[in-house]
Amino acid sequence: MSRKPENTAFKQQRIPAWHPLLTAKSVFPTFLVVSVAFIPIGVVLLVNSQNIIEIMHDYTDCTSVEDNSVLCSSVRLNQSRMEETCTCQINVSFDTSMSGDVFMYYGLTNFFQNHRRYVKSRDDNQLIGQHVTQSTVSSECLPFAYLPNGTVFAPCGAIANSLFNDSFTMIRDTTVVPFLQTGIAWPTDYSQKFNNPSPVNDLSQAFSSYIRPLFWQRNVEDLDTVTSNSGYQNEGLIVWMRAAAFSHFRKPYGRLDRSSSEFENGLSVGNYIINVSYNYPVTAFGGHKRFILSTTNWMGGKNNFLGIAYITFGCVCMCIGVLLCCLHYHARKRHVVHVDK
Amino acid sequence: MDILPFFKKIVKEHQRDLVANDSVYNAKFNYAINEIKTSRYTWYNFIVLNLFEQFHRVVNIYFVVLLILQYIPQISSLNPTTTLIPIVFVLAITAIKDAVDDFRRHRSDHSVNNRISHILRNGQLVEEKWMNIKVGDIIKLENNNHVTADILLLSSSEEHNLVYIETAELDGETNLKVRQALPNTGDMNDDLRKLSNFKGAVKCETPNNHLHKFTGNLYWGEEAFPLDNEKILLRGCTLRNTEWCFGLVLFAGPDTKLMQNTGKSIMKRTSMEKLMNKLVWLIFAFLLLLAIITAIGNSIWESSTGESFQVYLPWEGFASSAAMSGFLSFWSYIIILNTVVPISLYVSVEFIRLGQSLFINWDQKMYYEKKDLPAVYRTTALNEELGQIEYVFSDKTGTLTQNVMEFNKCTVAGKRYGDVFDEDGNAVYPDEYTSKVDLSYNMYAQEGFQFYDSRLVNAIKNHDENCEEFFRLISICHTVMPDETSDGNLVYQAQSPDEGALVAAARNFGFVFKSRTFDTITIVEMGEAVEYKVLAILDFDNVRKRMSVIVQDPKGKITLYCKGADTVIYERLDAHSDEDMKKITEEHLEAFACDGLRTLCLAKKHLDEDAYNVWKEAHDEANTALEDRDDRLSAVYEEIERDMILLGATAVEDKLQDGVPETIANLAKANIKIWVLTGDKQETAVNIGYSCNMLTDEMKNVFIISGFSSEEVEAKISAAMHEIHASERSNFSTNLHDDDVQFINHTSSEENGQSVSILSGSTDQYGLVINGQSLVYALANDLELKFLELASLCKAVICCRVTPLQKAKVVQLVKCNKKAVTLAIGDGANDVSMIKAAHIGVGISGEEGTQAVLSSDFALGQFRFLERLLLVHGRWSYVRMSKFFGYFFYKNFAFTLVHFWYGFFNGLTAQSAYDDWFVTLYNIAYTSTPIFVLAILDQDLDDDFSVRFPKLYLPGQKNELFNVKIFFVSLFRGILTSLVLFFIPYGAFSTGMASNGMDMTDYHTVSMVISTCLIIVVSLQAALDTSFWTPINHFFIWGSIGIYFVFTFAMHSDGLFQLVPSQFPFVGVSRNAFTHAALWLTLLLVVMICILPVVAIRFAYAVCWPTYAQKILQIQLRERKKEKKMRIKSPDNFANNLKQRFQTKFKIKRRTSRPKSGYAFSHQHGFGDLITSGRMSMRRKNQPPGSDNRTSEIATVSGSPAIESTDQPVMTETYKKINID
User: Fold this and answer.
1) What pTM, to 2 d.p., does this model score?
2) Where is this region: Disordered (chain B) (predicted)?
3) Are residues A267 and A323 in the same domain?
4) Which residues 1115-1144 of B have a C-beta within 8 angstroms of A?
5) Which of B137, B171, B255, B395 is catalytic?
6) Which of A336, B561, B903, B1116 stands the most exposed, by the fewest C-beta atoms within 10 Å?
């Protein structure tokens, strides 16, 4: 038998192939197309972003309604006055109506939800509804895993322990603007990642062997009166548990209930008062709290960055294209002399 | 590599001491047995040893340390599986590869170790495997057997206890050598009883690698006999022309000179790999730097911000202070940034090389049809080095030449025979259609004999007296031994192939040398046997350069026949001889020499009896002289070898292998310097140097260095240097080099369809010839650099008469002192050391055994395939590897540094920027295949163009495509890409929210966005690097992007999450994030920002500073387009055109003048001495009665008749070797 290699295109490395070459014919159109496309896209994005109405109010240093001489932040700094309530009032007025869906957010800055130890300080097994004990609870939750007597926190970990607990009530004239605190968490989180432990129809029973996290004022089963929004399935908790990527972030608090005819089209022009029950201390680490109202469109919320970036890059491409054109023309003159001689 | 050397007891041997047939005594010394082991593992120690070896790689240890670190919860920033899976994957794949390699070695060891040889045990011959042969055993060898071990010859079948051996496998010389046993031991013949009782003790030297030296003594009875090399048969030799012999094993297995000479096999690493290893250290340093920066940063952050953040995240136990936190963060960052050192780098490299090597095996254009030999890789570790060769060291015999001599032309009495003409009367080279002469009148004619000029045959048939004398001389004047095989075939044993070719030619023309005794020689002249009495043989030596025979024909006429180098003969011609004929013959000689043929003049002289008797007396007197015998003999010879009549001249062709001159010329254009290292004589070597285009007439000078002392050699080297420098100075002004100019000349002439000439003629060219004797001094410490300097100034270097070790030393000299990559190519065992010494060893699967191939890195069928191996496969491999490295480092920097930037937004706490699964799969699943396929398949230019434009090879030699600078460019690009990858998503997502109002600034979404961007960017970058888009490339580039999406969705699916919730925290992220328009817009922006500038810069470079390869590519594309058009227009025409274009562009050049090279008889004295002394004859020794029985006894004892008992087949083979192509 001959050992002659097979004469196949593959073995002889003669597979038909495309030899792309960076030629003027392919490079210039690329840059042209990119710059021609990017600038309009950028403009659209920018306009889009500008059309969004966003009201933001930093209430970190607001004064207490109960005692006009104190800042709520200082009340919260004082350990002995922990139990005291402190309420702030924010006045908001806008001259264009916020039509469509309106969302309410709270924003935190300098809050390191992305700290490595913070991010992993949770027990996903507990959150999907498995019962855990001192020995089975994830060690990542430490030191917020259990009490010295062995009672496990529900839910455990630093993230849960630091749950944002300011609450907002928005009032127009005398009516309370209805904001729903459901439908703000990812559906996948609600259905997959967070489930109450058994028995799901009796939450107080389900959580009876646990204790609420140290900083909490309510038990986890009491986060909402509606069962479907209580326990681990409370959407406020779910939203909080989804750690933010950066230390400045915002998280949805509620969405405008547009079922009533009054708010069917969103929020109309006018003056609004927001009552904030100020519970969450941030000044200790130099953080800030913000209250945000925003509409959305297909691109999401207000963000000029992409629009500007697109326009800038489109312009840069155009410049590069022109520069290359000059280079090419220049070099060809030189080249012609060389090759055709 | 020696396995666990510390397990062996190493006792330094001072003297070898052994007693024949006394295994108890010999066992005391623990000598090595004859087993050879080149394999590394056995099935039971494989896992342990292989892991042990793999962990010699720093990288593997590094990853295991990382793995351990990851199990420490305080610092574990990544799930341990992210490292565990890749490292297990890498280790397993490497182990499988090693196992397959070792299995092959086992098989080859096994076949050698299990060869059968005959050993004397308890008075009987038994069959025994080679590996069981021990020192002190007596073994029997038969004709054509390989010598089993290094043995002391005891007795043989031939008279005077001679044996003939072929040492080709050992030193590459194909001529037969003679060994002779001591008369005392020889008397034992094949008497098994006597041999069994032989209790001779041998004390001799310890194992060493000197092939031509042996010292020792045999103590037998009361006497001591000195032993020298003449009594020793070495492993690797083959017994020829000797029915049997007995020998005593002195050295076995690893102690044999053959094995000692093969030297230690060193792990060869390519220069690129060495660079890569250095770069890996650099990356380690870079990693440490990053980790230190982040550790310090973390301490600062913890003490300024983190301290006050303790409400929500208290410092607990392990992180009790900012400094402690910084310390832990250092390790965490080491873990998280570990991917800058790519784990899959090494294993990818190995498999890429395997793929590239397979293509070498599969290449039909490197397949040698005649012998059914494809090119074979033997190591897969060196491919890209093939693209960086600067020096080629080549053996001559069997590598450049076929080691076949052919009687090609002759001139008889002023008439020239042997030329072939076409119809138009032009001299042409004969091809397969040229009709051969009809030799049917001669029953001894051989089929394979090729001669095309029928005029010569006609002349002989017509009894042209001159022609008859001419061939009579050839058939008488030589020292060839005839042998008749059992089926009546006549075969010749010649010491030099030239002589064999001549005698065979005479035989074919009807002057058959039939037999000889020590004083007669029988010639069958045109069917009629004539017995001549040989009165004297005046043998050849290097000084005389001629040999003569004085014979007396049956009529009593005494004639001296002489053949020798032209100059020598011409000096000794009769002053009154025909001047015209001398002149014409000289012209013919000149022409022959210009054709590269080896010439030899023939002359004769009639002697009358009285004159002869007078001379005879003088001769006898000289012959018996005690002092200066050689000198006196020469003087006597001189006396009679004069006033001769010129008969004519012969021309023998030392056939080059196909395509050798073209290959050498093309390699020279690729700036590859070729040195020929040969064991041959200087004349032969120089001759071949000319005929294969290494030495040319255009050369300004060919320096010949030959001296017998260090001073002499030094003086000659200095003189040569002086001459070069002097002429360089005078040429300085005209010596211009401009690549561009050359390129333009090149292309324009190429387009006009003319032949190509790249070499600029402006530099002076020199050749250098040095012989082994002088090389001893030239390679000494004080001279070697000077020698090297001279040699590198010369275009061609030829070293002749060199020993295997010198070959290796020359290679070492260049390898160590020049920063150049060397390649050694050879076919014989004498080339083994040089093949091992060079960066790359190539073995020609030739006739001289397989030793060279076994120790080589690549095996080829023919020298000419070297062109394709280097210029096509080597260049491709280098280009591919360069792209691979550049890209691989880039993609890992781009990937890893995102963590670093992200650190500045999370307090430098070593929070990973990606999902752990993404980190795990990034290198092994998402990004490895496009570059892997690229590194195996990419062709920046196709093979034809790579060969046609050898200058394309230069970037490899200069290390231009991958070096430290390019590494830093990769690093820089990686940094830029990672910056874009992080900050664009940061800008787009830090304040964003989804269109449904939900959260999209969370860690999971942002990390998903970054990883998606990363995959697309690096895949497109691979696409940008791909210059040869086969469907396979398409499949893997787009496929790996597809795989990313598929895997991502799978990892984020509900099913997997419910299976192991803690392992798949990213559940639902992709479903959620891919619905955001912002993600897609960010993706587009990031990709464009990363890719377009690269396009722009590459285009700008291509426009302003195009590389040579890019220019050639344009020509290639243009030509391909033309071809396509032509093919569509007229397919037939196209095929013809193509054929024409690829036909060899090298016309056979006739050189105008050059030194004629004389005849190469042989290195030593001929057999003449042996013949006349009667020591050598073709009669068998009288066999003792009953020897036949004994032969059958072997068969019965062994039970196997598979012994090569007849010498006939091989003799025919040898015969063919002389005559047939």
Assistant:
1) 0.82
2) 1174-1209
3) no
4) 1117
5) B395
6) A336
